[in-house]
Amino acid sequence: MLLVARGRRDADAAWEDYAVPSRWPSWSPQITGVDCSATRIAAGVTGTVHAPLGARVPFEVTVVDEASRTWRWRVGAGPLTGDLEHRVLAVPGGSLTELRLSPALLGAPYAPLAWIALRRLVSGDASATAPPRWPRRR
Asked: φ, ψ for residue 37 (rounded to 5)?
């Protein structure tokens, strides 16, 4: 499953908000806190994402390529483990971010919240929660 969001925010700024786990709650509404073994993502970094209602989800960063602004992490435990691959691209007028979720079956329930987070990441706007609106018919 692939999610894509585009916004006016500079790609380097969006990348920095990915690269520093303590910043994740500022743009990802499903994350209320992060405990992490490092201040910046890198292969082998582990931690726990805190979610609403006291949920805690373990993670391990598996790949980071700062030059191409890409990274992967394994999130969850046991049969509820998923792989998430992120990418930030510079595009005219701002940035574009992609998130590939696998397996798709586990990613489907998470996709709406993830899409909101991606929109907030590339827009730099914590209120960017609504999907794009289509013009109304009169």
From this structure: -75, -5
Nearest to 48 by CA among 36, 40, 39: 36
Map tokens 């993830």 to a residue: 114
Say if residue 8 is exposed, middle or buried (CB neighbours under 10 Å; 0-12, 13-18, 19+): exposed
Average pLDDT, the chain: 89
pLDDT digits (tens, 9 = 90+) for 56-83: 999 999 999 999 999 999 998 888 888 9
Other C-beta atoms lying within 10 Å of the C-beta of residue 123:
19
Name the residue with higher pLDDT: 125 or 24.
24
Token pair in block for residue 92: 């005219």
CB 13 within 8 A of CB 121: no
CA pair distance 125, 101, nearest whole angstrom: 24
pLDDT at residue 99 tops 90? yes
